[in-house]
Amino acid sequence: MKRIAIFASGSGSNAENIARYFSGSNDIEISLILSNKKEAFVHERAKKLGIPSYTFSKTEFDEADLILETLQQYEIDFIVLAGFLLKVPRPILEAFPNRIINIHPALLPKYGGKGMYGDRVHRAVIDAGEKESGISIHYVNEHYDEGNIIFQATCEVLPSDSPDDIAQKVHQLEYNYFPEVIEKIVRNNNFDKIHKK
Ligand code: GAR
Predict the structure, then answer these.
(1) Would the CB of 104 count as within 6 Å of ligand 1?
(2) Which of 17, 104, 133 should be mutated for ligand 1, with most atoms under 8 A from CB?
(3) Contact at 8 Å (CB) between 4 and 80?
(4) Which of 44, 127, 144, 146 has the fewest beta carbons under 10 Å from its own?
(5) CATH superfamily of 1-97
(6) What are 126-178's pLDDT values in tens digits?
(7) Which atom of ligand 1 lies nearest, measured to the CA of 118?
(8) Distance 13 CA to ligand 1 centre (A)
(9) Is the model's pLDDT at 195 over the cut of 50?
């Protein structure tokens, strides 16, 4: 059994979608959900899904000891960031080499970096007059949104689109592709085998 931990800071609709995708699997499981926000809706989702979820502070995250202990306790093999807003500290990166991935709601390398999350990303895409946006799934390294890109998918941006309209299109891409990409990476641990759009 491969055990995945999801880190999420907000609503957690991706976390839920991923958990539902793997709920029928007999060799991949979402075993744990961790968040830096106590009030994040992802905890409600975790409760309904029967997945343990915990909150940690930014200091605990940066110090990493408690997080690493928890990941070890749940025998976690792989980490997925799904709407998670903190930079992953070195000890966690070193404990999970090439085994942490993130989803970003735009076509990296554009519109990434510190502070670029949620609607801020979609607003920047609109302000730049882009005709398309999309999702980027990438390995996580010590810089925000800079690890190797594994997979991208695109959606159209219309002149009349609001940040919310783009968010909806992007979420649909995330729901369609993220679980499948996670499955491929966890099975092969090799992103070269994944078709890059
Ligand atoms: C997702 O669109 C994800 O790509 C984005 O936050 C949203 C979380 O939605 N992540 C970032 O912006 C990271 N920089 P969710 O909580 O409903 O899954």
Answers:
(1) yes
(2) 104
(3) yes
(4) 127
(5) Formyl transferase, N-terminal domain (3.40.50.170)
(6) 999 999 999 999 999 999 999 999 999 999 999 999 999 999 999 999 999 99
(7) 12
(8) 9
(9) no
Is there an atom of ligand 1 within 6 Å of 83 CB?
yes
Ligand 1 in reach of 12 Cβ (< 6 A):
yes
**Could you give the strand order of the β-sheet that contains 78-81, starting from the edge strand earlier in sequence?**
53-55, 28-35, 2-7, 78-81, 100-104, 132-139, 149-156
Which CATH number, 3.40.50.2000, 2.40.240.50, 3.40.50.170, 1.20.140.10, labels domain 103-176?
Answer: 3.40.50.170
Q: Is the CB of 118 under 6 A from ligand 1?
A: yes
Would you call 143 a catalytic residue per the annotation?
no
24 alpha carbon – ligand 1 mean position (Å): 24
163-188 and 13-22 helices cross at what angle (nearest 10)? 40
Tens digit of each residue's pLDDT (9 = 90 or more) over 25-40: 999 999 999 999 999 9
> Same CATH fold, 103-176 and 1-97?
yes
